[in-house]
Amino acid sequence: MPKPSLQGGVYGGCRNKLPVRSELLPENNRQSGAVSNSLKMILYKAEPGICRDMDILNRQLHTPLAIYQALFSNIEKVITGKHKAIRLCLGAFASGVHVLLEDVPGTGKTTLAKALARSVDANFQRIQFTPDLLPSDILGVNMFRQSDQAFHFLKGPIFSSILLSDEINRASPRTQSALLEAMAENQVSIDGVRHQLDEMFFVIATQNPVESHGTYPLPEAQMDRFGIRFTLGYVSPQEEVDILEAQNNQHPLDELKSCASAADAALLRKAVLQVRVSEEIKRYIVDLVGATRSCKGVRLGASPRASLTLMRLSQALALFDGADFVTPDQIQEAAIPVIAHRLTIDPEAKFSGASASAIVEEIVDRLPVPT
C-alpha cells in the first residue's frame, strides 16, 4: 500500500491519518503542517462524515511525524535544495543536541538557523560574535540598583529557548567558553549562583572556516559540546536561479510564520526517546566510535559523548522515516556529522591529505553491519 502524503490528499504524513481532500486546504496549507483552529472548522464543516470528532482530528495533526513534516516544509520555503541539511538540523533539534554549521560566507548558514527559529513558536535570541564580545554580554550581569540599594541580575540572551550564535569563532576563546556550561548542563553559574536555562535550550551556531581571517579555532572541549557539525555547500545553478526568483521582491524569511509550538517541540523530543535501539545496534555504535580511538593518523578519538549523540540522532532520523526502531542506515547517515568534528588528526596525516570525514567514512565502510 503506498505511503499516504499531502499530495495524495491525506493530511499530516503519518500513519492512521484522516482522509481530508487536499482541495479543501488553502493554498498555503497544502504543503505545510500549520493548521489553525479556523482551518479545522473548515474541514469539519466540509467533511462532516469524516471530521466529526475534532479530538481525533487534533490528534492526527499533532503526531510527532506530522510535526516534523510541518517544520521541514516550512523551512524548505526559505532554504532551497538542502534537504539533507534541513533533515540533520531538525534531527539535532528533536534529539536535543546542539548544531554547528561551518561553511564559507553566503551559503545560507544564518538563514537556516533563523528559519528553524521562526518555525517554532518559542523564545529566540541571536548573538553576533565579535572579537570584543564579553562573556557577560552572553550570560548577563548583576547590576546595582540605587533605588533599593541591591544587586539585580539582568539576564543575557543565553536565557532563551533557541539561541543563534552567529560566527562563533570570531569571538575570543574566553567568550567562547561562556557557552560550555550552558551547552553541557543546561545551566549557567554567575557570581556563584546557578541559573537554570529553558528546558528546550538549543544552540545553533555558525562559523567560518578556520582559514578565514580574524577567526579563533574552537578548542576540543567546545567542539565536543556540539552534537553535530555539517556544511551546506553551494547550490546548483538552477537552484541558484530559483533563489534569485524567490527573492525578487522580498526575502521569503520575512513572511515565514511559526508552524509548531513549544509543546509540539516537547512532544517531538519525547517521541525520539521512545524509538527502540536494539543491543546489536548499540554495540555497532560503540564499535564505530571506538574505532576512531585506535585509527592510524588520529591523535584524539571520539568520546563516549559521541556514542550517546549518535544514538540519539539515529533515533530522531528513524522517527522521521516513520520507523519505531533504529537501523544501521540511520547510524551510517549520522556517523560523519556526529563524529568527524570530534577527531584531532596528526599533522603528518593532515599533510598527507587525510581528513576526519574520510577517516569516519572508511571506518563505516569496513566495520561489519549487524543483521
For the biggest sheet, the summary is: 5 strands, parallel
**SSE string, helix = H, strand = E?**
HHHHEHEEHEEEHHEEEHEHEHHEHHEHH
CATH superfamily of the largest domain: P-loop containing nucleotide triphosphate hydrolases
Helix share bin: 40-55%
The count of helical stretches stands at: 16
CATH class category of the largest domain? Alpha Beta
Any idea of the CATH topology of the largest domain? Answer: Rossmann fold
Q: Report mean pLDDT, rounded to a whole number.
A: 82
Question: Can you tell me the CATH architecture of the largest domain?
Answer: 3-Layer(aba) Sandwich
Please mark out the parts with pLDDT under 50 across 5 or more consecutive residues, or reply none: 1-58
Give the strand order of the largest sheet, numbering strands 1, 2, ... along the chain: 3-6-9-1-10
Count of distinct strands = 13
Number of domains: 3
Strand content: 5-15%
